[in-house]
Amino acid sequence: MKKYQIVIIGYGGMGSYHVTLASAADNLEVRGVFDILEEKRAAAAEKGLEIYPSFEAVLADEKVDAVLIATPNDSHKELAIQALEAGKHVVCEKPVTMSSEDLLVIMDTAKKEQKHFMVHQNRRWDEDFLIIKEMMEQKTIGDVFHLESRVHGANGIPGDWRHLKAHGGGMVLDWGVHLLDQLLFVIDSNVKSVSANLSYALGDEVDDGFVSFITFENGITAQVEVGTTNFIKLPRWYVKGTEGTAIIHDWDLSGEVVKPNALAGLSEPTPIQAGQGLTKTMAPPSEEATDTIPLVAPGKLATTFYNNFVDVLNKKSEPIVQNEEVYQVLKLIEAIFQAAETNKTIHSI
Ligand code: NAD
Q1: Is the C-beta atom of 97 inside 6 A of ligand 1?
Q2: Rounded to whole angstroms, how far apart are CA atoms 269 and 285?
Protein backbone atom coordinates (compact mmCIF):
# COMPACT_ATOMS: atom_id res chain seq x y z
CA MET A 1 0.00 0.00 0.00
CA LYS A 2 1.21 3.51 -0.85
CA LYS A 3 2.87 5.44 1.98
CA TYR A 4 1.74 9.05 1.58
CA GLN A 5 4.29 11.80 2.17
CA ILE A 6 3.20 14.88 4.11
CA VAL A 7 5.12 18.09 4.80
CA ILE A 8 4.40 20.24 7.86
CA ILE A 9 4.02 23.96 7.09
CA GLY A 10 4.63 26.01 10.24
CA TYR A 11 6.73 24.36 12.95
CA GLY A 12 5.33 26.17 15.99
CA GLY A 13 3.44 24.69 18.92
CA MET A 14 0.93 22.79 16.81
CA GLY A 15 3.11 22.04 13.78
CA SER A 16 5.62 20.18 15.93
CA TYR A 17 2.76 18.22 17.55
CA HIS A 18 1.53 17.23 14.08
CA VAL A 19 4.86 15.49 13.45
CA THR A 20 3.93 13.07 16.25
CA LEU A 21 0.29 12.76 15.17
CA ALA A 22 0.96 12.16 11.48
CA SER A 23 3.89 9.82 12.15
CA ALA A 24 1.60 7.59 14.22
CA ALA A 25 -0.76 7.01 11.28
CA ASP A 26 -0.61 3.99 9.00
CA ASN A 27 0.81 4.61 5.55
CA LEU A 28 1.68 8.24 6.20
CA GLU A 29 5.18 9.65 6.59
CA VAL A 30 6.31 13.12 7.60
CA ARG A 31 8.66 13.97 4.75
CA GLY A 32 9.80 17.33 6.08
CA VAL A 33 9.03 20.76 7.43
CA PHE A 34 8.90 24.33 6.22
CA ASP A 35 8.71 27.37 8.49
CA ILE A 36 9.41 30.98 7.54
CA LEU A 37 11.59 31.40 10.64
CA GLU A 38 15.18 30.16 10.57
CA GLU A 39 15.07 29.29 14.28
CA LYS A 40 12.05 27.03 13.76
CA ARG A 41 13.70 25.35 10.79
CA ALA A 42 16.77 24.77 12.97
CA ALA A 43 14.61 23.30 15.75
CA ALA A 44 13.02 20.89 13.26
CA ALA A 45 16.42 19.97 11.82
CA GLU A 46 17.64 19.16 15.32
CA LYS A 47 14.85 16.58 15.56
CA GLY A 48 16.21 14.98 12.41
CA LEU A 49 13.48 16.33 10.14
CA GLU A 50 14.19 17.26 6.53
CA ILE A 51 13.96 21.04 5.98
CA TYR A 52 12.57 22.70 2.87
CA PRO A 53 14.00 26.15 2.00
CA SER A 54 10.64 27.58 0.85
CA PHE A 55 6.95 26.77 0.47
CA GLU A 56 7.49 26.75 -3.29
CA ALA A 57 10.15 24.06 -2.86
CA VAL A 58 7.61 21.91 -0.97
CA LEU A 59 5.05 22.36 -3.74
CA ALA A 60 7.64 21.60 -6.43
CA ASP A 61 8.64 18.30 -4.81
CA GLU A 62 6.75 15.61 -6.70
CA LYS A 63 7.27 13.13 -3.88
CA VAL A 64 5.10 15.27 -1.59
CA ASP A 65 1.46 14.12 -1.59
CA ALA A 66 0.07 16.42 1.08
CA VAL A 67 0.79 19.39 3.31
CA LEU A 68 -0.37 20.15 6.83
CA ILE A 69 -0.93 23.86 7.46
CA ALA A 70 -0.23 24.94 11.06
CA THR A 71 0.48 28.63 10.58
CA PRO A 72 -1.40 31.64 12.04
CA ASN A 73 -5.06 31.69 11.05
CA ASP A 74 -4.95 34.47 8.46
CA SER A 75 -2.45 32.58 6.27
CA HIS A 76 -4.42 29.31 5.94
CA LYS A 77 -6.49 30.31 2.92
CA GLU A 78 -3.67 31.38 0.64
CA LEU A 79 -1.39 28.48 1.59
CA ALA A 80 -4.20 25.96 1.12
CA ILE A 81 -5.17 27.27 -2.31
CA GLN A 82 -1.57 27.35 -3.51
CA ALA A 83 -1.01 23.79 -2.31
CA LEU A 84 -4.22 22.47 -3.88
CA GLU A 85 -3.38 24.19 -7.17
CA ALA A 86 0.06 22.57 -7.05
CA GLY A 87 -1.68 19.18 -6.86
CA LYS A 88 -1.24 18.48 -3.13
CA HIS A 89 -3.84 17.25 -0.68
CA VAL A 90 -4.22 19.54 2.32
CA VAL A 91 -4.85 19.13 6.02
CA CYS A 92 -5.46 22.49 7.65
CA GLU A 93 -5.54 23.61 11.25
CA LYS A 94 -8.56 25.26 12.80
CA PRO A 95 -10.04 27.81 12.49
CA VAL A 96 -9.78 26.88 8.84
CA THR A 97 -10.34 30.43 7.56
CA MET A 98 -11.31 33.83 8.84
CA SER A 99 -14.70 33.71 7.10
CA SER A 100 -17.16 31.15 5.76
CA GLU A 101 -16.79 32.65 2.27
CA ASP A 102 -13.06 31.95 2.29
CA LEU A 103 -13.73 28.30 3.07
CA LEU A 104 -16.08 28.08 0.08
CA VAL A 105 -13.24 29.31 -2.15
CA ILE A 106 -10.96 26.56 -0.81
CA MET A 107 -13.69 23.93 -1.23
CA ASP A 108 -14.21 25.03 -4.85
CA THR A 109 -10.47 24.85 -5.50
CA ALA A 110 -10.23 21.37 -3.98
CA LYS A 111 -13.12 20.21 -6.15
CA LYS A 112 -11.59 21.74 -9.29
CA GLU A 113 -8.17 20.22 -8.57
CA GLN A 114 -9.70 16.91 -7.41
CA LYS A 115 -7.64 17.00 -4.23
CA HIS A 116 -8.73 16.37 -0.67
CA PHE A 117 -8.97 19.14 1.90
CA MET A 118 -9.59 18.26 5.56
CA VAL A 119 -9.70 20.44 8.65
CA HIS A 120 -8.07 19.26 11.87
CA GLN A 121 -11.09 19.53 14.19
CA ASN A 122 -9.28 17.21 16.59
CA ARG A 123 -11.46 17.87 19.61
CA ARG A 124 -14.14 15.63 18.15
CA TRP A 125 -11.86 12.90 19.54
CA ASP A 126 -11.70 14.36 23.08
CA GLU A 127 -12.94 11.80 25.60
CA ASP A 128 -14.93 14.29 27.68
CA PHE A 129 -16.87 15.18 24.53
CA LEU A 130 -17.24 11.52 23.54
CA ILE A 131 -18.81 10.81 26.96
CA ILE A 132 -21.43 13.50 26.30
CA LYS A 133 -22.01 12.13 22.78
CA GLU A 134 -22.40 8.59 24.14
CA MET A 135 -24.80 9.76 26.90
CA MET A 136 -26.94 11.53 24.35
CA GLU A 137 -27.05 8.44 22.12
CA GLN A 138 -27.72 6.02 25.00
CA LYS A 139 -30.20 8.47 26.60
CA THR A 140 -28.44 7.99 29.95
CA ILE A 141 -30.21 11.11 31.25
CA GLY A 142 -33.20 10.80 28.93
CA ASP A 143 -33.48 13.36 26.17
CA VAL A 144 -30.87 16.06 26.60
CA PHE A 145 -32.46 19.49 26.40
CA HIS A 146 -29.66 21.77 27.63
CA LEU A 147 -25.87 21.64 27.44
CA GLU A 148 -23.28 23.94 28.94
CA SER A 149 -19.83 23.57 27.41
CA ARG A 150 -17.03 25.68 28.86
CA VAL A 151 -13.30 26.04 28.99
CA HIS A 152 -11.90 28.36 31.61
CA GLY A 153 -8.28 29.42 32.03
CA ALA A 154 -6.55 32.21 33.94
CA ASN A 155 -3.52 32.81 31.71
CA GLY A 156 -4.97 35.37 29.32
CA ILE A 157 -4.51 35.11 25.55
CA PRO A 158 -1.34 33.13 24.78
CA GLY A 159 1.47 33.94 22.35
CA ASP A 160 1.80 36.88 19.97
CA TRP A 161 -0.40 36.67 16.87
CA ARG A 162 -3.44 35.47 18.88
CA HIS A 163 -3.69 39.05 20.28
CA LEU A 164 -4.13 40.54 16.80
CA LYS A 165 -7.28 40.81 14.74
CA ALA A 166 -5.39 40.77 11.44
CA HIS A 167 -4.00 37.30 12.24
CA GLY A 168 -7.38 35.91 13.32
CA GLY A 169 -6.70 36.18 17.03
CA GLY A 170 -9.19 36.05 19.88
CA MET A 171 -10.84 33.25 21.76
CA VAL A 172 -13.96 32.80 19.62
CA LEU A 173 -11.72 31.73 16.74
CA ASP A 174 -9.21 29.92 18.92
CA TRP A 175 -11.19 27.81 21.40
CA GLY A 176 -14.75 28.72 20.39
CA VAL A 177 -14.29 26.92 17.09
CA HIS A 178 -13.58 23.64 18.93
CA LEU A 179 -16.54 23.87 21.32
CA LEU A 180 -18.95 24.93 18.57
CA ASP A 181 -17.70 22.16 16.28
CA GLN A 182 -18.36 19.60 19.02
CA LEU A 183 -21.83 21.02 19.61
CA LEU A 184 -22.89 20.92 15.96
CA PHE A 185 -21.38 17.43 15.59
CA VAL A 186 -23.53 16.06 18.42
CA ILE A 187 -26.81 17.90 17.84
CA ASP A 188 -28.70 16.81 14.77
CA SER A 189 -30.66 20.00 14.22
CA ASN A 190 -30.18 23.40 12.62
CA VAL A 191 -29.34 26.43 14.74
CA LYS A 192 -32.42 28.59 15.26
CA SER A 193 -30.96 31.58 17.09
CA VAL A 194 -27.78 32.89 18.71
CA SER A 195 -26.97 35.58 21.24
CA ALA A 196 -23.50 36.34 22.56
CA ASN A 197 -21.26 38.59 24.62
CA LEU A 198 -17.53 38.94 24.00
CA SER A 199 -15.10 39.79 26.80
CA TYR A 200 -12.39 42.43 26.43
CA ALA A 201 -11.31 42.37 30.08
CA LEU A 202 -7.60 42.29 29.19
CA GLY A 203 -7.79 45.31 26.89
CA ASP A 204 -6.77 43.48 23.71
CA GLU A 205 -8.23 44.37 20.31
CA VAL A 206 -9.58 40.80 20.14
CA ASP A 207 -11.88 38.97 22.53
CA ASP A 208 -10.27 37.22 25.49
CA GLY A 209 -13.38 35.10 25.97
CA PHE A 210 -17.08 34.93 25.22
CA VAL A 211 -20.43 33.56 26.30
CA SER A 212 -22.95 32.48 23.70
CA PHE A 213 -26.45 31.11 23.98
CA ILE A 214 -27.60 28.91 21.12
CA THR A 215 -31.08 27.54 20.44
CA PHE A 216 -31.60 24.69 18.00
CA GLU A 217 -34.71 24.09 15.90
CA ASN A 218 -35.39 20.85 17.83
CA GLY A 219 -35.62 22.87 21.08
CA ILE A 220 -32.21 21.96 22.56
CA THR A 221 -30.40 24.94 24.05
CA ALA A 222 -26.68 25.36 24.70
CA GLN A 223 -24.45 27.79 26.50
CA VAL A 224 -20.93 27.84 25.10
CA GLU A 225 -18.31 29.77 26.97
CA VAL A 226 -14.57 30.42 26.80
CA GLY A 227 -12.72 32.40 29.46
CA THR A 228 -9.07 33.28 29.96
CA THR A 229 -9.54 35.36 33.12
CA ASN A 230 -11.14 32.68 35.31
CA PHE A 231 -9.09 32.02 38.44
CA ILE A 232 -11.88 29.75 39.62
CA LYS A 233 -13.14 27.57 36.82
CA LEU A 234 -16.61 26.20 36.21
CA PRO A 235 -17.10 22.59 35.07
CA ARG A 236 -16.16 21.59 31.51
CA TRP A 237 -19.69 20.18 30.91
CA TYR A 238 -23.04 20.55 32.64
CA VAL A 239 -25.84 18.76 30.84
CA LYS A 240 -29.53 18.43 31.65
CA GLY A 241 -31.85 15.73 30.36
CA THR A 242 -35.44 14.72 30.96
CA GLU A 243 -34.16 11.98 33.32
CA GLY A 244 -31.23 13.52 35.12
CA THR A 245 -28.22 15.80 35.13
CA ALA A 246 -24.58 15.10 34.21
CA ILE A 247 -21.44 16.96 35.09
CA ILE A 248 -17.89 16.53 33.80
CA HIS A 249 -15.49 18.65 35.78
CA ASP A 250 -12.42 18.59 33.59
CA TRP A 251 -10.31 16.76 30.99
CA ASP A 252 -9.46 14.25 33.74
CA LEU A 253 -13.01 12.96 33.10
CA SER A 254 -14.08 13.32 36.73
CA GLY A 255 -17.81 13.78 37.09
CA GLU A 256 -21.08 12.01 37.70
CA VAL A 257 -24.67 11.53 36.70
CA VAL A 258 -27.57 12.10 39.09
CA LYS A 259 -30.96 10.67 38.19
CA PRO A 260 -34.31 10.47 39.94
CA ASN A 261 -35.28 6.87 40.80
CA ALA A 262 -38.57 5.03 41.45
CA LEU A 263 -39.01 6.79 44.81
CA ALA A 264 -38.89 10.24 43.23
CA GLY A 265 -42.06 12.23 43.67
CA LEU A 266 -43.45 9.89 46.37
CA SER A 267 -42.76 12.34 49.16
CA GLU A 268 -42.73 16.11 49.37
CA PRO A 269 -39.25 17.70 49.61
CA THR A 270 -38.42 19.04 53.05
CA PRO A 271 -38.08 22.85 53.09
CA ILE A 272 -34.59 24.16 53.88
CA GLN A 273 -33.39 27.43 55.32
CA ALA A 274 -31.99 29.43 52.39
CA GLY A 275 -30.53 32.80 53.29
CA GLN A 276 -33.28 34.82 54.89
CA GLY A 277 -36.04 32.47 53.78
CA LEU A 278 -37.27 28.93 53.48
CA THR A 279 -37.47 26.98 50.24
CA LYS A 280 -38.88 23.68 49.10
CA THR A 281 -38.19 24.36 45.42
CA MET A 282 -34.44 24.68 45.89
CA ALA A 283 -34.07 21.97 48.56
CA PRO A 284 -31.70 19.20 47.42
CA PRO A 285 -33.43 16.09 46.11
CA SER A 286 -33.76 13.44 48.82
CA GLU A 287 -30.90 10.94 48.76
CA GLU A 288 -33.28 7.96 48.63
CA ALA A 289 -35.08 9.38 45.61
CA THR A 290 -31.99 9.87 43.43
CA ASP A 291 -29.22 7.62 42.15
CA THR A 292 -25.71 8.90 41.60
CA ILE A 293 -23.98 6.84 38.96
CA PRO A 294 -20.63 7.04 37.19
CA LEU A 295 -20.27 8.65 33.79
CA VAL A 296 -20.59 6.28 30.84
CA ALA A 297 -17.43 5.23 28.99
CA PRO A 298 -16.56 7.56 26.12
CA GLY A 299 -17.87 6.51 22.72
CA LYS A 300 -15.40 5.93 19.92
CA LEU A 301 -15.06 7.46 16.47
CA ALA A 302 -14.31 4.99 13.70
CA THR A 303 -10.60 5.80 13.54
CA THR A 304 -8.02 8.49 14.28
CA PHE A 305 -7.91 11.77 12.36
CA TYR A 306 -4.85 10.87 10.28
CA ASN A 307 -5.87 7.26 9.63
CA ASN A 308 -9.16 8.65 8.38
CA PHE A 309 -7.24 11.11 6.16
CA VAL A 310 -5.27 8.21 4.61
CA ASP A 311 -8.49 6.19 4.16
CA VAL A 312 -10.05 9.18 2.42
CA LEU A 313 -7.03 9.45 0.08
CA ASN A 314 -7.40 5.73 -0.66
CA LYS A 315 -11.15 6.25 -1.30
CA LYS A 316 -11.91 3.77 1.49
CA SER A 317 -13.79 6.16 3.72
CA GLU A 318 -15.64 9.44 3.97
CA PRO A 319 -13.97 12.22 6.00
CA ILE A 320 -15.02 12.20 9.66
CA VAL A 321 -14.64 15.99 9.54
CA GLN A 322 -16.75 17.13 6.58
CA ASN A 323 -16.03 20.53 5.03
CA GLU A 324 -19.74 21.32 4.96
CA GLU A 325 -19.83 20.83 8.76
CA VAL A 326 -16.81 23.10 9.19
CA TYR A 327 -18.62 25.67 7.04
CA GLN A 328 -21.63 25.56 9.37
CA VAL A 329 -19.32 26.18 12.36
CA LEU A 330 -17.90 29.27 10.64
CA LYS A 331 -21.43 30.52 9.94
CA LEU A 332 -22.21 30.08 13.63
CA ILE A 333 -19.03 31.96 14.59
CA GLU A 334 -20.06 34.80 12.29
CA ALA A 335 -23.47 34.86 13.97
CA ILE A 336 -21.76 35.04 17.39
CA PHE A 337 -19.68 38.05 16.29
CA GLN A 338 -22.77 39.71 14.80
CA ALA A 339 -24.87 39.04 17.90
CA ALA A 340 -22.19 40.50 20.18
CA GLU A 341 -21.62 43.55 17.97
CA THR A 342 -25.31 44.39 17.57
CA ASN A 343 -26.40 43.18 21.00
CA LYS A 344 -29.22 41.35 19.21
CA THR A 345 -30.33 37.75 18.89
CA ILE A 346 -29.44 36.50 15.42
CA HIS A 347 -32.03 34.33 13.69
CA SER A 348 -30.56 33.81 10.21
CA ILE A 349 -27.54 31.55 10.44
P1 NAD B 1 2.68 29.20 16.61
O2 NAD B 1 2.82 30.67 16.58
O3 NAD B 1 3.24 28.43 17.75
O4 NAD B 1 3.30 28.57 15.28
C5 NAD B 1 3.05 29.07 13.99
C6 NAD B 1 4.28 28.82 13.13
O7 NAD B 1 3.98 29.15 11.78
C8 NAD B 1 5.49 29.71 13.55
O9 NAD B 1 6.62 28.88 13.75
C10 NAD B 1 5.66 30.64 12.36
O11 NAD B 1 7.02 31.01 12.14
C12 NAD B 1 5.12 29.80 11.22
N13 NAD B 1 4.66 30.53 10.05
C14 NAD B 1 3.96 31.70 10.00
N15 NAD B 1 3.65 32.01 8.73
C16 NAD B 1 4.14 31.02 7.97
C17 NAD B 1 4.14 30.77 6.56
N18 NAD B 1 3.55 31.60 5.72
N19 NAD B 1 4.77 29.66 6.11
C20 NAD B 1 5.40 28.81 6.97
N21 NAD B 1 5.45 28.99 8.31
C22 NAD B 1 4.81 30.09 8.80
O23 NAD B 1 1.12 28.92 16.47
P24 NAD B 1 0.36 27.56 16.86
O25 NAD B 1 -0.12 27.66 18.24
O26 NAD B 1 1.17 26.39 16.47
O27 NAD B 1 -0.91 27.67 15.90
C28 NAD B 1 -0.81 27.38 14.54
C29 NAD B 1 -2.17 26.96 14.01
O30 NAD B 1 -2.56 25.77 14.69
C31 NAD B 1 -3.27 27.98 14.25
O32 NAD B 1 -4.16 27.96 13.19
C33 NAD B 1 -3.94 27.47 15.51
O34 NAD B 1 -5.27 27.87 15.63
C35 NAD B 1 -3.82 25.98 15.32
N36 NAD B 1 -3.84 25.23 16.58
C37 NAD B 1 -4.65 24.16 16.66
C38 NAD B 1 -4.72 23.43 17.83
C39 NAD B 1 -5.63 22.23 17.87
O40 NAD B 1 -5.80 21.66 18.95
N41 NAD B 1 -6.20 21.83 16.76
C42 NAD B 1 -3.93 23.78 18.93
C43 NAD B 1 -3.07 24.87 18.82
C44 NAD B 1 -3.04 25.59 17.62
Answers
A1: no
A2: 7
Which pLDDT score, from 0 to 100, does residue 287 have? 82
As assigned by CATH, the class of the 4-120 domain is alpha beta
Distance CA 280, CA 342 (A): 40
338 CA from centroid of ligand 1 (Å): 26
Query: What pLDDT band is residue 348 in, cutting at 50, 70 and 90?
Result: confident
pLDDT band at 303 (very low <50, low <70, confident <90, very high): very high
CB atoms near residue 178 (< 10 Å):
21
Hey, where are the domains in the chain? Answer: 4-120, 124-253+295-300+331-342
Q: For residue 349, what pLDDT is reported?
A: 83
Residue type, 268: E
130: amino acid identity, one letter? L
- In ligand 1, the atom with minimum distance to the C-alpha of 177 is 34
Residue type, 78: E
Contact 285, 244 (CB under 8 A): no
CB 36 less than 6 A from any atom of ligand 1: yes
- pLDDT at 300 (0 to 100): 96
Q: Model confidence over 244-269: pLDDT tens digits? A: 999 999 999 999 999 999 999 888 88
Tell me, using a 6 A CB cutoff, whether residue 230 lines ligand 1.
Answer: no
Our answer on whether the CB atom of 305 is closer than 6 Å to any ligand 1 atom is no
Asked if pLDDT for residue 227 goes beyond 90, the answer is yes
Homologous superfamily (CATH) of 124-253+295-300+331-342 is Dihydrodipicolinate Reductase; domain 2 (3.30.360.10)
Classify each residue of 104-134 as buried b or exposed e, where b means 16 or more C-beta atoms within 10 Å of its C-beta: eebbebbeebebbbbbbbbbbebbbbbbbbb
pLDDT of residue 129: 98
